[in-house]
Amino acid sequence: MTELDLTALTAGLSRRDWDDTHDGTVRFALVGLGWWTSEHVRPMLADLDVAAATVAVSGTPEKRERASAEWEQIEATLSYDAFHDGAATDHYDAVYVCTPNATHLEHVEAAAAHGKPVLCEKPMEATTERARAMVEACETAGVPLIVGYRMQTDPVVRTLRDAVADGFLGEPVHVQGHMSQPIGELFPDGNWRLDEELAGGGASVTDLGIYPLNTTRFLLDIDPVSVRATAKSAGAMFDDVPDEHATFEVTFDDGTVAQCAASQNAEFAAGLEIVGTEGAIRLEPGFFDNDTQRLTLVRGGDRHTVTYDSVGQMREEFAYLAHHLLGDEPVDPTGRHALADVATIEAVYEAAESDERVAVEW
User: Fold this and answer.
1) Quick one: which of 10, 23, 335, 337 has the most CB atoms within 10 Å?
2) Does any domain span residue 258?
3) In what helix (H) or strand (E) does residue 129 lie, and over which residues does it extend?
4) C-alpha distances in Å from residue 86, one per residue of 135, 137, 198, 222, 226
5) Residues 157, 234: one domain?
6) What pTM did the predictor assign?
7) Residue 180 lies inside a defined structural domain of this protein
8) How far apart are CA 27 and CA 49, in angstroms?
């Protein structure tokens, strides 16, 4: 690329770059019926032709009863034990796992044992060891595993990824990314994300810091090498986690450095800026769903900004997987790609505690 072609870059901001012409419907078992599944996933699936929620799985009888009574598509409701034992496997084609991070493995292993493709929420697990076991279980069973990074199927992010691959940035140099939210306002009575054992290491990096981390990796096609980090907790809700607020620096295998920040006790805010030798990209707020977005492109001294309404990110995620399954096409990135993020998160918490640079190993 020798000059900024804003028309070419912005023409695909709502265009799917994958085949979405396949006919049929992929039936999903929704494992975990908490806030995200109930308020964001199930309503979206209710009017998505290519995917449907036909089985509801929960450890709470009241949630199962509510799903059976209120969700029109539901054909069966199961306890976790019944799901693991293989009940109602003829009522679903694929599995969506949205339970606390440290419980993902057991549900994904069960889905793999039943021969069902899996969409697992991010981060894929609480530890690198358990994440690796999840990847191996799906590979052994020969079933696709995709981790729920909403940005990876966002048309804008995919358009930017192509632009980066075509040389828009030149050589990437550095990244700045951040995400924050006031979790106390969202969950005044507490939430499992504030339980270190269930979340996996902490609260802010696992839940929010993973957005700038993985989106950077996806856009630039790079892997982490080492990290430095700081973290602190002072608020009453954060007694059990080390990272009410956190900052971390990631060095990648191509030499790019990302400086990231995350907080579960700050105003809703997010953004990602990537600077290269020939251009720069800024996306803000970027990581929040169904929000007005602002994309800024800089190249050769020219700066152009486009404002647009984002697509429903969960809708794109399910549509992407469903069409690929219907077309018998490989999904990408795979679970093994996501394994590196879990290892990076572990390294961030180790670096914050030791105040030393820590290598990322997975």
Assistant:
1) 335
2) yes
3) helix 128-141
4) 20, 16, 25, 38, 41
5) yes
6) 0.96
7) yes
8) 10
